[in-house]
Amino acid sequence: MKRRPHTLGTMTDTPTHCPYCALQCGMSLGGDGAEEAPGGRGLPLRVVPREDVPANRGGLCQKGWTSTELLAVPDRLATPLMRASRDAPLEPCGWDEALDRIVSEITRSQGAYGPDSVAVFGGGGLTNEKAYQLGKFARVALRTSQIDYNGRFCMSSAAAASGRAFGMDRGLPGPITDLGRADAVLLVGGNVAETMPPFMRHLTDMQKAGGALIVVDPRRTATARQANLHLQPTPGTDLALANGLLHLAIVDGLLDEAYLKARTSGFEAVRTVVNAYMPERVERITGVPVPYMREAVRLLARGARSYILTARGTEQHARGTDMVTAFINLALGLGLPGREGAGYGCLTGQGNGQGGREHGQKADQLPGYRKIDDPAARAHVAAVWGVDPGDLPGPGRSAYELLSALGTAGGPRAMLLFGSNPVVSAPRASAVEERLDALDFLAVADFVPSETARRADVVLPTAQWAEESGTMTNLEGRVLRRNRAVRPPGGVRTDLEILAVLADRLHAPGTWSAEPAEVFEELREASAGGLADYSGITYARIEKEGGVFWPCPSEDHPGTPRPFLDRFATPDGRARMTPVEHGGPAEDVDGDYPVYLTTGRVLAQYQSGAQTRRVRPLADAAPEAFVELHPDLADRLGIAEGAAVRVASRRGAATVRARLTDAIRHDTVFIPFHWAGEGRANLLTNPALDPMSRMPEFKVCAVRLEPVPTPIDEGATS
């Protein structure tokens, strides 16, 4: 979507990047010449897309165009809030009072129950500097192992599968512009036309040049409508489909035998498993016709420059790691990974979903993608932090396990939360609400009173994306600079400032800077030698080069836009193929719950909606939750277009409006997950966890639908 920029103002434009998805579209922010807002903030800011950023090349979606409206939403927090007791209201207070309360509660809890009684929960939208400092704060200032982040709900299955196969996880296998020259792209479980619209132009370029787009999705999404071939499987059957495609590649003589021999290990074990996935059997499991499967394999194998890309639709499952592994096996069988202009990749979702999972927010991780239980990793990072390696805690609980343990015997009694809204975004959300309410103390740092912040004992107002500097790592693995365009309102502090002052009040060892550039310098040192090595990346290089690809181990290193060209990051340099078997969803349909539910996003909203639901043009474009169902299913159930529908699972029920479409399977319904209240999709979703990635099964569960005789309350899904 391109649009003419607003009338130029007198303010010098500030180059930066969009606050939303991992495409990190380039934009410049400038003034309209309007009167300055209180505090000399120079609002409103106009948005001008940047042509010099390859990811978007001058394009933005509606969310990007309206992104500066976030800076002045009506309920923007401008002062700390605190409640005197659990049943008292949140009321304004001073910063010293709020910080004193947090430190007092931390000290009390840890004195009574130990370091792990205090937990930290982060977010995939935090800058690299903030993600790094948050992980350090948990391990050094709090000495707790109980830290994880909402990125566990996004790319963790793809990360686990990539680590198992390639020895390293990094979103795309090359610059995004490589896609425009591909022979074919198989996109599994992703709807980029709505989730990151400027991405589509790279796929359109490919198609114009004769390449083929193949989309795997239970819905005929906006992306699927633009595909050359759409495979529409039953939810939860992607693994069987991938094994079936590899079976066809074998029997049709499409394998790259020389590549398999030279660059992989484990293929014979995989061959033995996929031999049982005959096309007719796979059609019965998935519902995808055999000719469609055969055509997909033919298109992928017709040239050497093809991609297999996975997204949340195939990753957010209790077998998500194995599902992604099956598609990696297919890519390896065709000889794609480790070749320029080809390979396997994961479409990272959140703005810093890539960088956010590299530097210490995960329960088992230290900066540089190091494992926290690796003695050498502990020694390196401890030396940077100025602490004894023995003082660093070990691995903690993963995100949903951490949330489930809150307020339980042996679980955390207090929590600090930055950049996340689990009341809306976590599976089985009503149970998460109960656990948050069971805490002795909850502190939330946010810029608006999100659904989670409203349950807190202390709320700290934080700066937003355009009000602070830092770095982000986009879905390509390219480290980018986010520059401050305007000062935050008076009374608002950055997350780095909050962490630094809390560390000081807790008498934490080491240094704690609130300056992003200084924190990044420490991150460089801490990541040195790790898989995600940022040590050769500097702010100056990022500005000069338009971003730097990691790993980059020295300042004279060019960065690594295409890893694996020479070898994979495994001990023997070979990609490891792992046999995986289809097992179906953790919860299948039955007589009581006869319909599959799948969830996802819509064009005008983002994640839990805490940001986008407050932007008027976006709220007008997508004002409420809905359930998408096939007209035949609606007819059987007596449900009319626009009618209120109660959708129930074994975990809860949501009330939403019906939207009838033949773009979805007869046995499946879809609810977007951006809304709170009675329309909350995650009241229904299944928290069954993948054994490797600890990813919950967001993308499939069993539900039943019932017409609701009374109208939906207009505010129920706001």
From TrEMBL:
Arranged from A to Z, the UniProt key words for this protein are: 4Fe-4S, Iron, Iron-sulfur, Metal-binding
The keyword Metal-binding is assigned to this record: yes
Q: Which PROSITE patterns match?
A: 4FE4S_MOW_BIS_MGD (PS51669), MOLYBDOPTERIN_PROK_3 (PS00932)
Task: Tell me where on the tree of life, at the top rank, the source sits.
Answer: Bacteria
**Which SUPFAM superfamilies does UniProt cross-reference here?**
ADC-like, Formate dehydrogenase/DMSO reductase, domains 1-3
Q: Which residues belong to any copy of the 4Fe-4S Mo/W bis-MGD-type domain?
A: 11-75
Q: What is this protein called?
A: Molybdopterin oxidoreductase family protein
* Species in which this protein is naturally found: Actinomadura vinacea
Among the Pfam families in the record, one is Molybdopterin
InterPro entries linked: Asp_de-COase-like_dom_sf, MoPterin_dinucl-bd_dom, Mopterin_OxRdtase, Mopterin_OxRdtase_4Fe-4S_dom, Mopterin_OxRdtase_prok_CS, Prok_molybdopt-oxidoreductase
